[in-house]
Amino acid sequence: MKAIGYSEQGPVSVAGSAVEFETSDPQPGPRDLLVEVRGVSVNPVDFKVRANRPPPEGDPKILGWDAAGVVREVGGDVTTFQPGDEVFYAGEFTRDGSNAQLQTVDERLVGKKPSTLSFAEAAGLPLTSITAWEMLFDSFGIREGEGAGEALLVIGGAGGVGSIMIQLAKKLTGLTVVATASRPDTVEWVKKMGADHVVNHRNPLNEEMAAIGIAPKYVAALTGTEGHWDAIIEMIKPRGHIGMIDDPASINWQALKMKALSFSWEFMFARSLHKADDMDAQAALLNRVSAMVDAGDVFSTVSQNMGALTVENLRAALTHQNGGAAIGKTVLEGMS
Ligand SMILES: NC(=O)c1ccc[n+]([C@@H]2O[C@H](COP(=O)([O-])OP(=O)(O)OC[C@H]3O[C@@H](n4cnc5c(N)ncnc54)[C@H](OP(=O)(O)O)[C@@H]3O)[C@@H](O)[C@H]2O)c1
C-alpha cells in the first residue's frame, strides 16, 4: 500500500515531515478490522508528535488519528463489523496511523460511519467527539438530560474539540453553554455550534464571565489553559470541576483547594493505551454520535477540505491546523 509518514523530527516545514512511501499491507489481528481509508483529518497531536519524537528506524512513521473508510477484512474474533461496513474511528496512539491507503484498528474503538456524511466529513468527528464525550460524561460525570441551572464554559470553543463539545452539551444536557472565541469568524462559528453565550478569551475570562453574570460549575479548559488558570479559579463555582486536555508547562494546583474544586485530565488515548476493560466505550459513544448526526441532532464540524491525501495537501492541512486559528476541523479525502 501507499502511505505518508515522517522520517525527520521537527516542524511541518522540515523535508522529512511528510514522505510518501510504499509498504506492505497491514495484517489484521484477532480483534482488528482492516480498513480502506477514504477520509482523514488532522489534529494538534500530529504536529506535537512530529516535533517531539524522533521517528523509529526503518520506514517513515505513519501518523494520523482520525479516519473514515470501508472494512475490507476482519480478524477471527471480530463480532461487530463485517467486510463492506462503513466505519469511523480515531485509533490508537502506539499503532500506525490513518495517513495510508489501509489501516488496522481494534473493533472496540470503531463506530459506524454516519450515513449522511461523506467519508472526509465523517473523519472530522472521531478524535474530538471522544475527547468531548469523555470529558462531559466520564470526567465531569454529567448525566444525559441533567445539568439545568448550571453552566459549562468551553475555552477554545471554535477549535476541533470545542465545536463538538458545544453541540453535545446542548443536545444531551440541560447545561447553559458559554463558549470563548476572539474573532468575528469564530464568534459566528460557536454560535452556529449552539453556544448560548460567547465571551472573548483575549480578555480576562473572569471579567468576561462576570459581565454576563454567569459562574460556571464546569470549565472545559481546551486551549491556553496556563494563561486562563487564575481567571478560571476566580470565576468557577465552589465545588466546581475543571477538565483539561492541553499541555501547560506549570499549573498552581494549590489554587483548587479553597473552593474544593475537582480537576480531571482528559486523554482520549488513555483507554486504548492501557487496554482498559471498557475500551469499547469508545465504539459505543461513536455509534451514539453517528446516530445523532443521522438524526440531524449533530452536524459536521468540518470547515476545510484540503483535497486528496497527498504530501502537499497534508502539509497544507497541518500548517493550517498548527497556525493557532483553526476553526472546527480540517479534513482530506483518502489516498488515490
Ligand atoms: N488530551 C486529549 O485527549 C486531547 C484531545 C484533543 C485535543 N487535545 C489538545 O487540546 C488542544 C485543543 O485542540 P483542538 O483540536 O480543539 O484545537 P484547535 O482546533 O487547534 O483550536 C483552535 C482554536 O483555539 C482558539 N484559541 C487560540 N488561542 C487561544 C487561547 N489562548 N485561549 C483560548 N482559545 C484559544 C482559537 O480561537 P480564536 O481564533 O477565536 O482565538 C481557535 O479557534 C490542543 O493542545 C490539542 O493537542 C488533547
Overall description:
- The protein has helices at 44-52, 119-123, 126-139, 160-172, 184-193, 205-212, 225-235, 270-273, 281-294, 311-322, and strands at residues 2-6, 19-22, 32-41, 61-62, 67-74, 86-89, 102-106, 110-112, 151-155, 176-180, 197-199, 218-221, 241-244, 262-265, 302-305, 329-333.
- Helix 3 crosses helix 9 (281-294) and helix 6 packs parallel to helix 7 (225-235).
- It folds into 2 domains: 2-125 and 277-333, Quinone Oxidoreductase, Chain A, domain 1; 128-265, NAD(P)-binding Rossmann-like Domain (Rossmann fold), CATH 3.40.50.
- The protein is α/β, with parallel strands linked by helices and 336 residues long.
- Strands 3, 5, 6, 7, 8, 15 and 16 form a 7-stranded mixed β-sheet that branches. A 6-stranded parallel β-sheet has the order 11-10-9-12-13-14, with helices on both faces.
- NADP nicotinamide-adenine-dinucleotide phosphate binds next to helix 1 and helix 4.
